[in-house]
Amino acid sequence: xxxxxxxxRELKKEVKKVLPISxxxxxxxxxxxxxxxxxxxxxxxxxxxFANSHSLESMRRLNFFYSPNRxxxxxxxxxxxxxxxxxx
Length: 88
Fold this sequence. Notes:
By secondary structure, the chain is of the alpha+beta class. It contains five helices and two strands; from the N terminus they run ααβαααβ.
């Protein structure tokens, strides 16, 4: 999951690139969505990408990007383990 829809689109493209051809519908079992889209749901394992390539732009959107409520949703959706990917 990611806070941004554009990043979710990119993650889906990359997932499709690395999966074997035999898996025709990867998103039937693998959910890639925004943090807001995951609200109210749980999964055994969550990978949450907070990486951002535009640090100056994220500074303008700190309230959205670093919202305590959004962070709470992100890290509490995992039943077994949550992996958080971020940059400085």
